[in-house]
Design a protein that fits this description.
It is built from 7 helices and 15 strands. It is an alpha/beta fold. The chain has 2 domains: 12-154, Rossmann fold (3-Layer(aba) Sandwich), CATH 3.40.50; 172-271, OB fold (Dihydrolipoamide Acetyltransferase, E2P) (Beta Barrel), CATH 2.40.50. The strands form 4 sheets. It has a 5-stranded parallel sheet with strand order 2-1-3-4-5, with helices on both faces. It has a 5-stranded antiparallel sheet with strand order 10-9-8-12-11, with no helix packed on it. Strands 13-14-15 form a 3-stranded antiparallel sheet, with no helix packed on it. Strand 6 and strand 7 form a beta hairpin. Helix 2 packs parallel to helix 3 (72-82) and helix 3 runs antiparallel to helix 6 (144-154).
Length: 275
């Protein structure tokens, strides 16, 4: 049964689910279990979820764990990086067909989780939990707690123990330009930057593009030397000259001998602390 717990008027939600029938099914079940909830957007991938959430500021986000392009976890990461400081961050509910991911998310203190196909009784319990959480939340909640949760979900700290055996360290990158393959020693790389379906590899001499993703590349890099400072940016720690924090919690990096200024998101700002 829907909860009688009072809550802010016009509670809103976003649904991110790449399977249309499942998205419509969840929408219909929410209409039954939570008649006062207004669905402000239904999207089919992680990038759209982050973009719409930032634009519409819903109270709750139902995020499918596995979606094309970016997962629900990565969508939550993108939202946390760009969410305005002082604005209330949405309650996150992860939706998954895989129990192990659901339990991991719940243990990491997500607001709740749902396993596909969603059972009405389980959704009723989730709705009651969400309405209680909304009723108890202050009008504005800082991002600090959400950022801490996301760090735990993502294993963001460099040097954190691996959950499984790491792949061999990458020593040379092969960047193709037409019929030519450039052999780029990893020791010469200053930073990696995600660019659509490619990764931009920047050295002191030139830039290269490789057809891979940061997600695939990261496990092959030495985390003590290369720090992820943004969801789309990995920087060689020794190349960083200064780190300057602004009021929103973002950190701007100046590299030695380089004119550009790179941005580290608030999610990774804890890496830059004075000794």
């Amino acid at each position: 049964m829907p909860s009688d717990t009072p809550e802010p008027a016009r509670a809103t939600a976003l649904i991110a689910e790449d399977e249309t029938l499942l998205a419509e099914g969840l929408r219909a079940e929410l209409a039954r279990a939570w008649p006062g909830l207004r669905i402000v957007a239904t999207v089919g991938n992680g990038a759209s979820a982050a973009r719409e959430a930032l634009a519409r500021r819903p109270d709750v986000c139902f995020l499918d764990i596995r979606m094309p392009g970016a997962s629900g976890l990565e969508a939550a990461e993108a939202m946390a990086e760009d969410w305005p400081e002082g604005d209330r961050f949405p309650l996150i509910v992860f939706v998954t067909a895989y129990d192990q991911y659901a339990l991991q998310a719940f243990d990491a203190q997500a607001a709740d989780y749902l396993v596909k196909p969603v059972e009405p009784a389980r959704l009723d319990a989730c709705v009651a939990r969400l309405r209680q959480r909304l009723a108890e939340r202050a009008p504005q909640t800082a991002l600090a707690r959400t950022v801490e949760q996301l760090r735990a979900w993502l294993g963001a700290s460099p040097g954190a123990p691996a959950a499984h055996a790491a792949p061999p360290r990458l020593e040379v990158l092969q960047a193709s330009v037409g019929p030519t393959v450039h052999m780029v020693p990893v020791d010469e790389v200053l930073y990696f930057e995600a660019a659509d379906k490619y990764v931009r590899v920047v050295t002191a001499e030139r830039d290269h593009l490789i057809r891979t993703s940061l997600r695939e590349l990261l496990p092959q890099l030495d985390e003590r030397q290369f720090w992820q400072v943004h969801r789309s940016l990995v920087v060689r720690a020794r190349a960083i000259e200064t780190a300057q924090r602004d009021e929103s919690g973002k950190v701007f990096l100046k590299l030695r001998g380089r004119p550009e200024r790179l941005t580290a998101s608030r999610l990774y700002a804890h890496l830059f602390r004075g000794m």
